[in-house]
Specification:
The chain is of the alpha+beta class. It has a two-stranded antiparallel sheet with strand order 1-2.
């Protein structure tokens, strides 16, 4: 088998080249906060959300795209 890795630009290009229009793109992931995560899960979750929104290429571990066929 083989693996292919996509970033924001290449995942969008893949779908658009296949005749789809991306209507939503979302990154999911987390910041590396092992000590804080154990001590304050709520605070860690808030930091995770900010970090992934601000730096999806750095902290995003998966990207979810919604697309419609053009």
């Amino acid at each position: 088998g083989h693996l292919r890795f996509f970033d924001r630009a290449t995942s969008r290009t893949l779908l658009e080249d296949a005749g789809f229009r991306v209507i939503r793109w979302e990154a999911q992931g987390h910041a590396p906060l092992p000590g804080l995560r154990a001590a304050s899960p709520g605070l860690a979750a808030g930091i995770d959300g900010f970090a992934v929104r601000a730096f999806p290429g750095l902290f995003g571990t998966q990207f979810l795209l919604s697309a419609l066929r053009d």
